[in-house]
Every structure is written in C-alpha cells, then in structure tokens.
Amino acid sequence: MMALRARNARLPPEVDRILYVRNLPFNISSEEMYDIFGKYGAIRQIRLGSSKDTRGTAYIVYEDIYDAKNAVDHLSGFNVANRYLIVLYYSKTKQTKKVSTKDKEEELRRMQERHGVDGEQHARQKA
C-alpha cells in the first residue's frame, strides 16, 4: 500500500525521464553506466559524451519517470572512481542552443522590417 501511494504522489515539475549526468570518469563504459543506473529501473538509452567538450557527461533515458526520480534521489553525489556524480533532470530550457551569427542577422532584419527601421538611421544620427 505504501509503495502504491508513493507512485501516485505528484511529482515536482522539473522531474523528467531524461537525466543529465556530469563529473563522470572519462573512461567509464556503457556497461558500467547500465550497472550503476539500471539498478533503479528499465533504461531506454544511455548516451555518453565522446567529444572533448562532452567527455565526463551522459544522458540517461528511463522508461518510467518514477525510476528516473529514484535514480536522481540515490545517485546524486554517488562516488564513482573517486568522482562524485552530479545527476540532474534534463531541461529543454536549460540546454542552450547555439545561435549562429547568420540566424541573429536574420532575426535583426525581420525586427527592422516589422518596426519600419533600417540599421542606417542610427548610424546617420550619430555622424
């Protein structure tokens, strides 16, 4: 009965089936990741960072949101090869999308058209 009540409890809005893990040992294998995180529920996918910028990070997708919450609760601060894991819920809003200069220029042009200005007016006023 207690387990059923816990499963029906409302989850905080930040809880997600996808976890973002930082501070992993660079040489950790997928098998080791499944051993550590699989104890908390069925895993759909693990993606380990492999580039210079993403080494030591991973995304873990659980089948069930409650299993993901359980993993965060138990594995945040867990010691793996003398490194303490940082386990966070994935947040689409926190993941920064790199915007190219071309995209910024296009957005600026659209705004100038919408407001009936061109970039030259301001330059002429200063001169």
UniProtKB/TrEMBL annotation:
Cellular component per GO, a single term: precatalytic spliceosome
GO BP annotation list: mRNA splicing, via spliceosome
PROSITE patterns referenced in this protein's UniProt entry, alphabetically: RRM
Region annotation (Disordered) ranges: 96-127
GO MF, any single term: RNA binding
Gene3D superfamilies according to UniProt: 3.30.70.330
Chief location of this protein within or outside the cell: nucleus
InterPro entries registered for this protein in UniProt: Nucleotide-bd_a/b_plait_sf, RBD_domain_sf, RNA_proc/Spliceosome_comp, RRM_dom, SF3B6_RRM
Residue ranges annotated for the RRM domain, each copy included: 17-92
Protein known as: RRM domain-containing protein
